[in-house]
Amino acid sequence: MKTLIAGLGRLYRGETTFDFIGRRMIGFAISIIIIVLGAGSLLIQSLELGIDFRGGVAWEVPANGLTEQDARKVLDDNNVESLNAKIQFLTGTELQVMRVQVGDQTQEVRLSVQKSFAELAKVEVEEVSVASVSSSWGRSITEKALRALLIFFVVVSLYISWRLEWKMAAAAIIAMAHDVIISVGVYSLFGFEVTPATVVAFLTILGFSLYDTVVVFDRVQENSKKFATTRQSFANIANVSTNEVLARSLNTTLASALPVVSLLVVGSFILGAKSLEDFAVALLVGMLAGTYSSIFVAVPLLDLFKQNEPKYQPFKGQIAVGVAMSKLMGHGNVSRVLVTNSSKLNASSVTDEELIAQTTQRATTVLTHPPRPRKKRR
Questions:
Q1: Domains of the chain
Q2: What's the chain's average pLDDT?
């Protein structure tokens, strides 16, 4: 318990020395596994598109003890295919509503089914709502959503290239695409319905992911200037920068996720607002993916892009860990820190005692030299 409290204290003081670059393959592997699972789910069962995208008719009926079998019988009696009908029960604080969605139908069939549901639920016809969306309208909003996503990527790339540099823009775009792919994969895996609210949430989380990534990249740029006169690998600069903003990223995610969880619990499970559930689930999944990608995807990718630049190439593979990274971050009095070669030390994992011993040995080597011969007196 004391160790956990001490670790949290170091985290929120910005004193962590986690080797993000040396362990980047773990982060990449986790992302690849989630993406592969999502892609497999998309190939097998695709996305559960809402009525706004695929078109069709939806009736909402006061449940009043109705069952799914009752709804399917009404559809069959009106010559509407019930096998692929989507039937949901939305529970609110006062009333439970049954929503029935099928493909596009004629006006006569819509009115006939509406009347049958009203008779079954023993309510007035006006209490059974009917919503109809054409498939062409669904295709239209799908195209507009994809167009908005493409424009967003282009504008973001241009801005980051101007504000920071093009390599950071490339890493940020890959990280955002990573978030979209993971979010879509999660929706397919768990069978969440994709609605216009979901698309709005996706665009919102892209902005959140971009903000988190730019915060880290801005610190990387500051530290690049700070260590310009020292001989440091870009991996060291990236590690130092990520550890310095780690607490800020986690705080931002926590502060943003708590209202979303409240929206999901209150809006969906208590009030029964289905649109709030679609929006909240997409936001929550995207926030978690965005925070993860800014730390474990964007920064390690940036290191791969920059480690071969002329000023960093001679120190490629050198990563300060433990005490050495702590000194590099300014938590000690040593002006020159020791770096370890990751290719020789298996992911840069060495103990603090080994680093101190190596430092002492190098200092002894530098200070120990044969005495200079004295000049003879005349």
A1: 14-48+137-306 (1.20.1640.10), 56-133 (3.30.70.2040), 313-365 (no CATH)
A2: 77
